[in-house]
Amino acid sequence: MVKSGSPAEDERFSLTDDTTARVFTVSITDLRSTDQGLYWCGVKRTLTTDVYSEILLLVKLGVLSSISVTGYSGGGVSITCRYDEGYTDNEKYFCRGQNPVTPQIGWCSDLIKTEEKDKWFDSGRFSLYDDTTAAVFTVTFRDLSEQDSGTYQCAVDRAIITDSYTEVKLKVLTGVLSSISVTGYSGGGVSITCRYDEGYTDNVKYFCRGQNPVTPQIGWCSDLIKTKEKDKWVYSGRFSLYDDTRAAVFTVTFRDLREQDSGTYQCAVDRAIITDSYTEVKLNVLTDTDVPKTTSSLQPSSSAPPSSSSSSSSVFKTSTSNFTSEPPNMLKGLSLIISLVLVLLVLIIVAVVLLFLYKKHQSRGNDSSQTGAGKHEVVSHTGCDYENIKDTQKQLPTNPSVSPDCVYSTVQKATGDSNILITSAEDLNYAVVNFHKKADCPDRDRLRNNQDYSEYAAISHLTA
Predict the structure, then answer these.
(1) Domain match, 192 and 167 both
(2) Which residue range or ranges hold the Ig-like domain (predicted)?
């Protein structure tokens, strides 16, 4: 049929020779009933007789493929089977039975059968949906029990010729409600929430490690934490358990994970007389090299129950195993608040400084304007006090005879020797002039006003 190094007589046959493993493999595609029979795998030896291995090939008529499905007692499974696109209009059905080597009538008992297309059809514990666009049909099987384990067929009724089948081998695990997978991180922890039937709220709940065996065995699951307590946290080593009787779920936290903690666990309800019910938990613990570190907090509260409506799990990882580190979101929020407060303080300080400078500048401007509008200004020399004579609108001449518009009053000598009193007329331009008899006082002074520069003649103090 086929020989290494030569083309096959039938293109459906192919051969690969693995010289390292010293095995060769023959593949046959598009099997037909006529392919059934006895075959030989042979090794040609030049000097001696060839070596042969006898192969008996049996072909099951109508079977497209074979699949294995695992279900859990009380749960359900969904099975999807493909068929040839030429049979979209044919009836589809799901039956129970082992396809015999030789055809037999009634060897497969129908469980659900329908001509309906692209819509769900229900019958007891079974539902069937024929998706003609994808050329597949799906069967759901609910409320499983241990007796449902066995061989089933997804079939297409082809009327004249033999029906086509997809063989389904179903295995039902007793006591198991569901199965979940959880990933944890070394040094961190996981939180696992498992549901149970509402009729068992008063029963003992526990968490154990072990693989549910096909046949019942005593002590196959080692208890890690077990309690009768309701609606409160119970602690035992690295484990905590909270039984929420209102939601009919219980939550287990598993802290300080290690790589060797990877394995199969069970959330279980002790049902005393009958087999306990289980939720299978497959835990995989990764090391620090597998994922980057993060920090979070998970410390069960003795009063607050976890919220969940179905079996689920959550994963947390910490840099230490005491779960006291602050959540990253809280640290980010605190940093933002501190930054805003600092910015606000800086703005307040800048505003106060600007206000101070503005007030100071305004005060100086007021002083300057008052000085320019006044009638006289005190000029101090060391030990000498004068009042500068101001020109409000007119420039004073150095000689009174130059300007006939200037009016001066008579000067009378006061009773004291140190003062001369001048009394002015209505638009008098001069005020009192005080003379001090000190040798170091200057005999002249100069004044610069806001408009121009005026120089006045010397004022002499004549003694009588």
Answers:
(1) no
(2) 74-174, 187-284
Nearest to 252, CA basis, from 317, 206, 187: 206
Phi, psi of 171 (to 5 degrees): -125, 125
- Give the number of residues written for the chain: 464
Q: 394 and 409: one domain? A: yes
Using CA atoms, how far apart are residues 389 and 423, in angstroms rounded to an integer?
Answer: 14
pLDDT confidence of residue 231 = 92
| Contact criterion met (CB below 8 Å) for 173 and 70 | yes
Joined tokens for residue 39: 């075959």
Percent of the chain past pLDDT 70, that is, above it, reads: 63
Regions of the chain with pLDDT less than 70: 30, 33, 59-65, 101-103, 174-178, 214-216, 288-333, 365-464
The residue type of 20 is T
Residue 192: count of CB within 10 angstroms of its CB: 25
Q: Please identify which residue in the block is written with the tokens 């090391």.
A: 287
Joined together, the tokens standing for residue 110 give: 């129908």
CA atoms within 13 A on the CB side of 452: 8
Q: Compute how many other C-beta atoms are within 10 angstroms of the C-beta atom of residue 252.
A: 23
> What pLDDT, on the 0 to 100 scale, is given for residue 447?
47
Q: Which two tokens stand for residue 146?
A: 């241990």
Domain boundaries, position 300: 180-316
Query: Do 124 and 39 belong to one domain?
Result: no
Confidence (pLDDT) at 54: 82
Cα separation of the two ends of the chain: 159
pLDDT given at position 103: 62
- How many other CB atoms are there within 10 angstroms of residue 389's CB atom? 18
